[in-house]
Amino acid sequence: MKTLNIKLFFRILLFIPLAMGTVNCSDQWLEPKPLSIFTPENAFVDARGMYGALTACERNMRYEWYGDGCPMITELIFSEVCVEGTTDKPGPAMNMNIQITPSSQLDNIDYNRIGWFWLEGYKGIKYANVVISRIDQTKFTNEAERNAVLGSAYFHRAYRYYRLTQQFGDIPFIGKEIIEPKLDFYTTKREVILQKIKKDMEFAAQWCTDNVDRGRVTKGACQHLLTKIDLALGEFDAAIAAANGAIDGGAYSLMKTPFGAIPKEEGDYLTKLGIVRDDVISRLHWHANKALGTNKEVLFMVLSREDLIDSRLDLQIMRQAVPFWGVSNSNFLRTPDGVGPATSDVAAQDIKLVETFGRGIGRARGTNYSTRMIWDDQNDLRHKKYNWMNMEDLVYNHPNLKANPYYNKPLQLRNSAGGVLTTDTIRNWFGWPHYKIYNPDPRRIQPQGGSYDWYVFRLAETYLLRAEAYWWKGEIAKAMADVNAVRTRAGCAAYTDAAKFDIGTILDERARELFWEEPRKTELNRISFIFVKTGKAYKGNTYTAANFGTKNFYFDRVTEKTDWYNKGVKANNGQEYTLSPFHVLWPIPQSSVSSNTQGVINQNFGYDGYANNKPPLTAIPAADDI
């Protein structure tokens, strides 16, 4: 894997959207007069220009994990691993039965980001289609170079279609660059789109290579995505073959020994405790190690760097996924003797908690399932003390408590009489994976998470995908071996009892390994569709396509593993946590349905507009493809 010329990458990133923005108007008088030589006609002339165009896809992909209220939170809170923890305002997605409608606010950090996935999904498709449509108007040195570019474009388009077809089901398919206004889109069957992108990804996996810069599409990434598509289609042997390509191809391997830099200082609180996080799990997720050439586990990643001011994005994960533990003037945490405030988020305290853990606001609130239930081995490095933080690992540090006997003692949830010492157990009291969430933030006194690279696909997930394919086929020993490959790397004992191994075992391992990496709802939905296709039972339940909106694996899994939804749980903002089976698919934003005046974009079951649906297309029209 090459080391990316990062400055050149981001210069291209800034330019390409401007060039691509000039290709959509057909009237000559509407054509902008470029202020530089960078126009489509002279930018997309060779492989370098085409890869530059794909930088727009790479740039936009980053937004899912970065920024305040990032879209990844929506993927997590519509699953069993997290719930929305912002309890001081009425907008965040808690009461799904009331709040999630086609005409609701669907793309706002204070509500949810469902609409972001719809709009950005099609935006990524648009950018990829520019390259796909112009591939034969470009000069390449040879066929391999051409096909590698085309394969990379196919990857970006397939990545978006894979996500959209799991999140929204049947959707419109757009297979080429649109160069004039179009208001007649029609919904296409999900399976038809999956078959199309499977074919594209088979081509991409053949022609893309692994010897490319970090942030570019690799053969391994193509094989990984193809594995997911094959699974979604119920083609389990094909999924195993695709996963084998990445696992056994020689370019990638699980990192099993510590590598790269040793984190020497985190704020200085853990340093004072003598904690050095130098195990393989900590090294794998240390911000400075992800893009190293010695890291053989990364298949695909997105890039952001602190020293590139014009294009850096902040992860802000230390703000989103850490409890709202530290506010200097708030009494929401108190000492056992009733004194508050108990903690402080002011920097430069004697006990520097905020520099180490960040000033969290608890947006992505881990459930009991993800923070406690799944941790079944005390030797798991991912749950090792100070890799994983529980609230009891923090201490009372408010400067006003220096004379108090509890100063510098561990936080407690209850006093000796059983009274709760926090005003909001939803937002203020839960555990989190510090080893993954900690990203230094040199520009803020109260760290939120700085500008660093993030994994999209890792080989650990490829093993878990192959395990799933084996499980669907009934080859339990092979499925268990793949889960154990990931599990034992983290220091856990291997599973040995095939009778206790099921799809839940694999999902538990995914939750342990892939927090803030996997799009959890997307994957739960994919599995839900497979249960329909195979007729296989889950704990005595079987599922059908005809009743998918009223009975499905997704809803059964979420309500089985969490104590939140439909249990009468209310947040301080008055919202009750509710969820219905039809939330397995998100609503198509009403703005897209209404503006499509000459066609029909179907709405999903359970939402207003469903009665207006027309039968979806069962083939991709030639006019919509190349």
Write the layout of secondary structure elements.
Layout: H1 6-20, H2 40-43, H3 47-61, H4 72-77, E1 82-84, H5 96-99, H6 114-134, H7 143-167, E2 171-172, E3 187-188, H8 190-207, H9 219-232, H10 236-248, H11 269-272, H12 280-285, E4 298-302, H13 317-320, H14 353-357, E5 364-366, H15 368-373, E6 388-389, H16 425-428, E7 432-433, H17 434-437, E8 454-458, H18 459-473, H19 476-489, H20 503-513, H21 520-534, H22 553-561, H23 590-595
Antiparallel strand pairs: 1-5, 2-3, 4-8, 6-7
Helix pairs in contact: 1-3, 3-6, 3-7, 6-7, 7-8, 7-9, 8-9, 9-10, 9-18, 10-18, 18-19, 18-20
Describe the oligomeric state of these chains in a short phrase. single chain
Average residue pLDDT: 92
Question: How much β-strand is present in the residues?
Answer: under 5%
- Class by SSE composition: mainly alpha
| Termini gap | 32 Å
Secondary structure tally: strands: 8
Largest sheet: 2 strands, antiparallel
Number of helices: 23
In what order do the strands lie side by side in the largest sheet? 1-5
C-alpha Rg, in Å?
Answer: 25 Å
Shape: globular
Helical percentage = 25-40%
| Uncertain parts | 8-32
